[in-house]
Design brief:
Blueprint (H helix, E strand, L loop, with lengths): L3 H10 L12 H15 L3 E8 L4 E7 L6 E11 L17 H15 L9 E11 L5 E9 L3
Parallel strand pairs: 3-4
Antiparallel strand pairs: 1-2, 2-3, 4-5
Length: about 150
C-alpha cells in the first residue's frame, strides 16, 4: 500500500508516474545551470517548470530584446570523460521526433496563454554536460525545434 500513495499523489500533481519518487538532482541542477547561462546572455527567465495540458516546459524566457517568447528544453547529462575529450552521446541527441512534437504542442499551448498571446515563439535546446570535476559545458541551440 505504501507504494500506491506516492503514485496517486504524483498523478494528482501531474507528474508522470515514471518520475514519481525520483531522487536524482541532475535535472534541476541542469536547469539552474541553463537559466544562469541564459541570463548571462541577456535572456529574461520568466518561468520554470511550466505545466500545460500537453506537457512541461523546463524554462520559459523572453529574448534579450523582449519581443519573443522562448520555450527552453534543457538536457543535462553527467560526463565522465577526460577534459577536452568529445562526448559521443551529447545530451542533444535525446531530442527525438516524439520530443519535438511534444515541445511544439507545449509551445503552442503557452503561446495561447493570455499574457503571451500574439508573441512570436521559438523553441531552444540547452545542453548541459556536467563533469566530475570542473565547470559544466553548456551549448545553447537557438530555434532547435521548428514546426513544419
Amino acid at each position: 500500500m505504501s507504494g500506491a500513495l506516492p503514485a496517486l499523489l504524483a498523478r494528482l500533481r501531474g507528474t508522470p508516474r515514471r518520475l514519481a519518487g525520483r531522487r536524482d538532482p541532475l535535472g534541476p541542477k541542469g536547469e539552474r545551470i541553463a537559466a544562469k547561462h541564459l541570463k548571462k546572455a541577456g535572456y529574461r527567465v520568466v518561468s520554470r517548470n511550466v505545466f500545460t495540458r500537453v506537457g512541461e516546459a523546463d524554462l520559459v524566457c523572453l529574448t534579450p530584446d523582449g519581443r519573443a517568447l522562448v520555450v527552453v528544453e534543457v538536457k543535462a547529462r553527467r560526463w565522465n570523460g577526460a577534459p577536452g575529450e568529445v562526448n559521443r552521446y551529447p545530451p542533444e541527441l535525446a531530442i527525438d521526433g516524439r520530443k519535438r512534437r511534444k515541445l511544439l504542442a507545449v509551445a503552442g499551448a503557452l503561446s495561447r496563454r493570455k499574457k503571451w498571446m500574439g508573441m512570436p515563439v521559438r523553441i531552444d535546446v540547452v545542453a548541459v554536460e556536467i563533469p566530475q570535476r570542473g565547470a559544466a559545458v553548456v551549448r545553447h541551440h537557438e530555434g532547435a525545434v521548428r514546426g513544419r
